[in-house]
Specification:
By secondary structure, the chain is of the alpha/beta class. The chain has one domain (about 15-300): Alpha-Beta Barrel (TIM Barrel). It has helices spanning about 5, 15-20, 50-55, 60-70, 90-100, 120-140, 160-175, 195-205, 225-235, 255-265, 280-300; strands at about 10-15, 30-35, 40-45, 75-80, 105-110, 145, 180-185, 210-215, 240-245, 270-275. The strands form two sheets. An eight-stranded parallel beta barrel has the order 3-4-5-6-7-8-9-10, surrounded by six helices. It has a two-stranded antiparallel ribbon with strand order 1-2. Helix 8 links the parallel strand 7 and strand 8. Helix 2 (about 15-20) runs antiparallel to helix 9 (about 225-235).
Length: about 300
């Protein structure tokens, strides 16, 4: 039975149910929206992943990426953990100090996870890994950790996959709550390819320290209209946003102005981090995307 105190913390059910019904979803029930101010507050950011060409090659360090964030004029950077040298406290605290001395926040950290596991022991290993990164995120001074649901194991049903991912994320959120760290599950292929799957996992986790790391481009959709419906359904529960200006597969432009209006409608408050995957070199392509995000924030944010 749901805690009655928690029920009073929610104001309304957003337009999620209608959007999911339109997509033919049969899994998710309406998900309550946390009680917050209705005013949108948007802040430009940048993901380390945007510079993966240089980070993979070892020609850019995480320290240099942080300074690149200062050069870009963003409010925060998202630390993609693939390129951290270690999780040793001294190293993470040094990154935290570098960001602080340069007036830059960390919008969060991002890790790879495969929470959708049929094997109980493997789910336990995934949980321990997430716990480790929760501790690392805390040392960085960030309040958000991106996680993935993972691929559905062969022979498993979608419902089973959702149960396994939710079980692991729920336990991880309980650990995150001890440090004030929110986990944002990203819409990212596999068991989180569709909005209804992501929302159903979130409903089952049922934690104030659980949310959606919303990537506006990643949804599996039948049409571009479905993309915006999925974004709208997930935005009331978004805890961080990754944004691009084109669809990677089709190279079609994404209507950022339309997304900006959805931010306002949902009252989104938080970072909008550039996750660049364009064909142009990141050194020139990322600043262009960040410029569009800054324009979006100026136009639609109360901050």
């Amino acid at each position: 039975m749901q805690n009655p105190m928690r029920r009073r913390e929610f104001l309304k059910v957003a337009g999620t149910a209608a959007a999911l019904a339109a997509s033919g979803n049969t899994l998710a029930q309406p998900l309550p929206v946390p009680a917050t101010s209705p005013v949108a507050r948007l802040f430009p950011g940048c993901c380390a992943y945007s510079y993966r060409k240089y980070l993979d090659a070892g020609t850019m360090t995480m320290e240099e990426f942080i300074l690149k964030g200062v050069e870009l004029g963003v409010h925060a950077v998202d630390v993609t953990a693939y390129w951290l040298k270690s999780t040793e406290p001294a190293y993470l605290i040094n990154l935290r100090r570098l960001a602080f001395k340069n007036g830059l926040a960390f919008s969060g950290a991002a890790i790879r996870t495969q929470m959708c596991q049929a094997d109980l022991a493997e789910r336990a290993r995934q949980l321990e890994s997430i716990k480790k990164w929760i501790e690392a995120t805390d040392l960085l001074g960030a309040s958000h950790l991106r996680v993935f649901g993972g691929a559905l194991p062969p022979g498993a049903s979608e419902r089973q996959g959702i149960e396994w991912a939710a079980e692991t994320m729920k336990a991880a959120c309980e650990h995150g709550a001890k440090r004030g760290i929110t986990l944002g599950i990203e819409d990212h292929h596999g068991i989180t390819a569709r909005a209804d799957q992501v929302l159903e996992i979130l409903r089952r986790v049922d934690s104030p320290f659980a949310g959606i790391n919303l990537d506006v481009e990643n949804f599996e959709v039948q049409s571009e209209e479905d993309r915006y419906a999925a974004i709208e359904a997930c935005l009331p529960h978004a805890t961080h946003v990754h944004i691009r200006d084109i669809v990677s597969e089709t190279r079609r432009p994404i209507d950022l102005d339309r997304i900006g209006r959805l931010f306002v409608k949902a009252g989104y408050k938080g970072y909008i981090s550039a996750e660049y995957e364009g064909e142009e070199d990141p050194m020139t392509g990322v600043p262009k995307l960040v410029g569009k995000i800054k324009d979006l924030c100026r136009k639609y944010s109360s901050a």
